[in-house]
Amino acid sequence: MELDSDEAVTWFTSEKVRRPFLEKLHPAATIRPCSYNIVVQFIPLTFRVDKALDLRELEEVNGLQSRVINRVRWIKPVARRHPSQTCGHIILTFSAPSPANDMLVYGLFICHKKVYAEKCKKEPLRCLKCHNWGHMVAECTSEADVCGTCSQHHRTADCDNTDHLHCVSCGASGHSSWDRSCPVFQCKCKELNEQLEDNSMPYFPTEEEWMQVKEPPKTVFVMQPPGPAAPAGGKTMGFRQTTLPWASSRRHEQGGGAWADQDGYQSQHWHSYE
Length: 274
Description:
By secondary structure, this protein is α+β, with helices and mostly antiparallel strands. The chain has three domains: 36-119, RRM (RNA recognition motif) domain (Alpha-Beta Plaits, 2-Layer Sandwich); 127-195, no CATH class; 221-273, no CATH class. It is 19% helix and 19% strand. The chain has five helices and twelve strands. It has helices spanning 6-12, 15-25, 52-61, 97-106, 183-195, and strands at 36-44, 69-74, 87-94, 108-110, 113-115, 117-119, 221-222, 238-241, 250-252, 259-261, 266-268, 270-273. The strands form four sheets. The protein has a four-stranded antiparallel sheet, with helices on one face. A three-stranded antiparallel sheet has the order 7-8-12, with no helix packed on it. The longest helix is centred in the last third of the chain and has 13 residues, at 183-195. The chain is globular, with a radius of gyration of 25 Å. The model is unreliable at 220-232, 234-239 and 246-274 (pLDDT under 50).
């Protein structure tokens, strides 16, 4: 639901208003509150995501209000873990945007380890039965199950041919259908990011302006700057150009090869690397 004002939201949160509304809408209707998901990487496997005591301790250690974390889950299923694996990635689900944004900015402590988080972005739907795009299992019209690991006709959980990976999406061998490096998956994500403005925002938008910013472009422009060629037998120097905005009024710093605006902020700079 989307209401037209903050006053309407406050009014609707009252149980005296919600209950008769749901009864008139449908006897079995329920309201699921909004959730705010962040990804936290490299968490020790000793962290117990299914224990409420660990969640309350996580909130206390990081200065969060009690029960602001609704859910924690591992991204990779336990059955797919490598025998020598010691860390994994989790998804934290918050009930409000502000504490989630605080964790995105400052990071958090889990199992005495300082870790950092990223906002969960919406990704294209992939059916876990036929492994095609745009629908889920409940809407799938395929008659047989297709394995996401080897692309044979059996359930992915029952696959015993894990040494022969084959992707259903792109038809290539060497990776599975659920591999995030699949070129088809990357293309689908790019198309979705262009459609959803929320995917380009690093924080969950609130009334504060700094939480409404968008991520700058991540394209790295590589080129050889003007100058003499490297001497024979010497090391080849490469240069990476930043993507900071180009100021309308600028001056050239002496000896630095960089442009700066009137306030002293650098607008373009060459970074060298070997």
